């Protein structure tokens, strides 16, 4: 293995931002900054006052109809109200946000803070080994010793811990200098 020093390097990983789709407030059980998340893990929830009020109104209407079962049309009305309650429950469930990746929380909205549609709730950065990339600028002489698929160790500056990696690609890019062509005089 050849040790090659990079002149500059950048570590990158996909970032995901979760945004609110509803007016309301951030629930107190939001995940904290620095937390590691796995796919399917709960991250945040928005509490919508409008949704909760609608749910209570429908439940009250249903309770009132059940008390007056002697009215022949109440069975049909009960079915309609139960359908609206089910729709409101699905809407409530859609306000719970779960992780879609193995990632780390880099920002989270404060608990109980107000939100509107489009408000940022949580920012995640992928932390799966297969999703992290290191792009390094190496000297042309060192680039000749690197080939795609080669095993490598990446050690960030100031760290004693190296991570195993493999070379994904070697690109030779340059910026051409403008030049003037002079025709030979005959």
Q: Care to describe what's here?
A:
This protein has 186 residues and is of the alpha+beta class. The chain is 23% helix and 28% strand. The chain is built from three helices and twelve strands, in the order E-E-E-E-E-H-H-E-E-E-E-E-H-E-E. The protein has helices at residues 49-67, 74-93, 140-143, and strands at 8-12, 15-19, 24-26, 36-37, 42-47, 96-98, 103-108, 114-115, 120-126, 133-137, 151-154, 163-166. The protein has a four-stranded antiparallel beta sheet with strand order 2-9-7-4, with no helix packed on it. Strand 11 (151-154) and strand 12 form a beta hairpin. The longest helix has 20 residues, at 74-93. The protein starts with 7 loop residues before the first strand and ends in a 20-residue tail after the last strand. The mean pLDDT is 84.
Quick structural overview:
With 186 residues, this protein is α+β, with helices and mostly antiparallel strands.
């Amino acid at each position: 293995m050849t040790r090659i020093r990079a002149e500059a390097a950048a570590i990158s990983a996909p970032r995901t931002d979760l945004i609110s789709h509803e007016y309301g407030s951030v629930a107190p059980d939001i995940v904290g900054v620095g937390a590691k998340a796995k796919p399917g893990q709960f991250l945040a929830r928005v509490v919508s006052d409008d949704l909760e009020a609608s749910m209570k109104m429908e439940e009250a209407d249903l309770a009132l109809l059940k008390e007056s079962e002697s009215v022949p049309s109440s069975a049909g009305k009960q079915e309609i109200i139960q359908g609206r309650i089910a729709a409101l429950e699905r809407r409530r469930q859609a306000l719970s946000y779960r992780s879609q990746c193995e990632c780390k929380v880099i920002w989270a909205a404060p608990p109980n803070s107000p939100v509107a549609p489009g408000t940022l709730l949580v920012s995640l950065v992928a932390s799966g080994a297969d999703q992290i990339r290191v792009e390094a600028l190496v000297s042309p002489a060192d680039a000749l010793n690197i080939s795609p698929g080669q095993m490598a160790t990446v050690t960030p500056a100031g760290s004693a811990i190296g991570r195993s990696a493999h070379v994904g690609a070697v690109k030779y890019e340059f910026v051409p200098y403008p030049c003037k062509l002079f025709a030979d005089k005959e």
